[in-house]
Structures are given as structure tokens and as C-alpha cells.
Amino acid sequence: MASKQQSEKEFLKNYNIHDYEVPLTSVDLVIFTVREERLHVLLVKRADHPFMGQWSLPGGFIDVHKDKNLEATALRKLKEKTGVKAPYLEQLQGFGSKTRDPRGWSSTFVYFALIPSDLVELSQGSAVDAVQWFPIAQDQPLPHLAFDHTEILEVALQRLYNKVEYSSLAAHLLPAEFTLSELQQMYQLILGRPLDKSAFRKRIKEGDFLEELNGQFRYGSNRPAQLYRLKQGLGLVYYARSLSSD
Amino acid sequence: MASKQQSEKEFLKNYNIHDYEVPLTSVDLVIFTVREERLHVLLVKRADHPFMGQWSLPGGFIDVHKDKNLEATALRKLKEKTGVKAPYLEQLQGFGSKTRDPRGWSSTFVYFALIPSDLVELSQGSAVDAVQWFPIAQDQPLPHLAFDHTEILEVALQRLYNKVEYSSLAAHLLPAEFTLSELQQMYQLILGRPLDKSAFRKRIKEGDFLEELNGQFRYGSNRPAQLYRLKQGLGLVYYARSLSSD
DNA sequence: CGAATAGTGTCTTTAAGACATTATATT
DNA sequence: AATATAATGTCTTAAAGACACTATTCG
């Protein structure tokens, strides 16, 4: 153990993390997409112990050589599993306890990602038998998940539902170009309730995070709909007031 | 390395975390209080390398034997430094990178605590020379902090300012019993702007997180003020609308 | 033209801001 | 009574909800 007398340089030369009992630390991801009018979450079947053969959230250990920070680990894992490079990504929360992993004290930094389904190419990673989208729906319960991943997924869903109420978050589940009606449908799908068209559009205009694609429309057997895309480099826009108050 | 053929039990018997290069993992705390009409943050002077002698946020390593989960580590550290057992405590965010600690890849789970100043008894911990409250103010810059703690503190302050706008958070900085005027002053102090008394009170009543202490008043050379306390077991109350929109 | 969805306008409702007024203690 | 702060009431404002109405394309 280091003495107080030595210099910082000397101290670092003698420092060895393996002199201490440390927790396992990993990064896990809750990746959502919407396909076929339904919210889905990405799960992987574990190829190794512990919980071999069970479904779990994608994730893994920090590579102390490759990853420069936590977000880099999350992006690396995301790309391995989905091929998506630039998703909406934010940190959800850390989870850590003595009991969540049979190997011992374990902690994980969980990230929360939204990706438009048109960008996804699922790939089989080296340590997984399978990668699969599972719909989030009452009538279709998810399989039992490894570790505390059922609880983590629940926290992620709450974050999603809440944040959609007062921010532009839902737009990140759509392809790059979309109409206001498509955006409203996305909000409705996630919130599980219809929204008033007029109020919705006033809010979006107020938020000022979309740009009109001049002269570009979505055509159908009706009046064509103006196409929009997200203004670049804006991040999320938050509203002063939540979508509904009761 | 474990083979896929063995049982989970066998696998765990042979598993050794020290076979891998793992990041350092710690828990740090941003502890706020308000004393003498000013927001303060608790800092400790580091007694050991690295950054010996520099001020830093209180924190330390997870004790894999004592701590049952991350929050337990945070509460243990908080109690060691302040004597406070049941503060307002929430997880702020994880921070982790190759460069934040000279010992190597390092990650930390940062917790955010609010404590009423009347409960605090500062104590000198074993690994610190000093524990001290520092005022948060433009005209009084904080010392240069160890690691990335300046950045972490900035994130915590933003969380504080934001959350006070739309929740009952500020009430957790007051002693157990307080008047509505005292509560309003606390909000004003943190937000740095005056609030309208009538609007403020309507909001608090709407939130319904206070209970009147029947017949108990704060006396002065004026009309006595009704005393209130937080309703127990409620957690934070969030408003549908932020305090001000411009 | 009819069907269908896009897009806008008007009135109401809700919660907050501005600000005046009343209430009740001490000195 | 004067003073000080507590507590409440009224009017206005901002943004959302309800809902009707107009616009524009295709078949």
C-alpha cells in the first residue's frame, strides 16, 4: 500500500488495481425502435455463463484499451449489434449490487438508445447466439431476462414514456424525413393515447426543432403532406408544459 | 477462460475477475446545503495520491463486503462525512473514461444529495485532511478540483437548478418544519430570481406535498406564519408546468 | 365529385403571473 | 396606531384541449 511520503509518480508506478477487491463493471444498453406500429426492444441470447441461454439486454465489459469513455463503450456495443452508428443515445442510470451477478459485486452503466427501424441491420455478435427485436405489449410478455435486466428495462420504459410527454424525443424513432402526421402517430403509439392534431402542431411549431423540406411531400390518395426533418445539432427540445395534465 | 460446455456452477468456481483488465469503479457525492443564505457544496481535501492535497468531491471505492448496493455506498460515504443518515439522495450520472484518473481507466457513479444545514456535523474522515463547505457564487470561485470533479459539479448544479423549476426538490434543503415564506425564499435563493407569492402558493397547494402543523406558527413582529412539514413517504412532486417560461 | 388526409382557425380551459387587498401579530 | 409580514382575491396572460372548418390531392 502507498505511503503518504512518496511522490505521485512513485505512487502510480506501484499502484496495482488487483491489490484490491473490486466490483465487475459493465455497460448495458436498452435499445428501442418502432416497427410494424409497435415499440420493440433489442435482446440478445447469452452465449456464455452466467445465465447462458437466457435473453438479456445487449452489453458487455469496458475495453480499457479500445474505449476512451463510457459512451464509446455504449456506441461500440450498439454498432456490433445493430450496425447503427449515430443513434439517439443518453445515459439511463447506473445499477450495482452484491447480488445482481452470481460472479460477485457487479455494477453497470446503462445507456438508452432510440433508433429508426429503417437503419437497422441486425448482426450476430461473437458472444451471442441470437439478436432479436421483442415487441413491448401487455398481451405479449417478454421472456425472463438475465441479471436484473427486467427491472432495468422497466426503468428505461418509464424514462421513455415520461420524456416523450415533454420533449422532442419521439422524433428520434422516425426515419430522417417524415410528415407531421407521422410524428404525431409516433407520439400516440408510445403514449398509448390519441392527441389533438391542432394542439400537437402548435407545440411542434413552438418547439422549432424541425425544418421544412422545401417542395418535398409525401403523396397518397389525399392532400400531400409536407416533409420535415430534424434541425441538425439541436439535441432534445423540452417544453415548458407537459402534454396533458390529467 | 471458461468453456461453453461446463455448468454455470463450475464456471463460477473458476471465474476470477483478476484475469481481466478492469476499470476502477468508485462512488462520488455532490452534497448541497444552504447556510447563511447561500448554496454550499461539500468538498474534502485529498489525503492520498493521486491529487494529494487537492480539493475533491467526497467519495471512494465500493466496499464489496459492507455495501449491498450503490446507494448503500453513497449513504455510507455521506454519513462518514456529514453525520446525516436520511438525506434526499438520487443518482446523478455515471462518468468514466481512460483519462479521468492517472491510475488508469476509471468510472464513477455520482450521487446527488440535499441536506438541511441544521442536521450537519462535519467530521474528519480517515483519508481526508479536511472537510469543508464551499459557497457556490460567481464572486467566490471554487478551488481547482481533483479528477473531473469540476465538470461533475457543474452537471450537478444544472440538475439542481432545473429540477427546482418543476418539482418540490427545494423543500429538502429546509429543516423539517418551515413556513411557506421560508420555502419561497429557498426557491428564490436557488433560482436567483424573485417569485410571485400568490402564484407560488397556488402551486404548492396544488402539489399537495405539505401538511399543516395544526396550531403551530412561526412568530415575529408581524402576523404569525403557519408551519408546515413534508408529507411522509411521498418522494418528489413534479409539476405539469415549469415555474416560468421566459 | 367523393374520399381521405393535411392543415388552420376559434373558442374554451387551465395554470401561472401581476398586483392589490385583507389579516394578524408585535412594538 | 404604526409596522411588518402572512394570506388571499381578482384580473390578465400563455399554452394547451376541443372541435369545426378549409385545402388539396387521387381515383
UniProtKB/TrEMBL annotation, chains A, B:
SUPFAM superfamilies: Nudix, Winged helix' DNA-binding domain. Residues 23-160 form the Nudix hydrolase domain. It holds the Pfam family WHD_NrtR. CDD domains: NUDIX_NadM_like (cd18873). It comes from the Bacteria. This is NUDIX domain-containing protein. It comes from Undibacterium cyanobacteriorum. The lineage of its organism: Bacteria, Pseudomonadati, Pseudomonadota, Betaproteobacteria, Burkholderiales.
